[in-house]
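Researcher: I'm preparing a figure for a lab meeting and need a structural model of a single chain. I don't have an experimental structure, so a prediction will have to do for now. The sequence is pasted below. Please return the structure as tokens so I can convert it later.
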Amino acid sequence: MAVSAIDISRSLSGIDFPANKQDLVNHAREKKANQEVINVLQQMPEREYGNMADVEHAFGEVK
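Model: Understood. Here is the structure written out token by token.
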């Protein structure tokens, strides 16, 4: 299965920003995201994300 921006967005719904990469991974795990989504989040750059647009931009770079 290819991970889409929608998968990432659903897995991170309700997260509080700003958030770092580990916050994203932890939140997705709490939301029971599938392992492919977790893997993509773990590949994202180590930085602070200010909003979902920042996350989607980084996702586009990793994808």
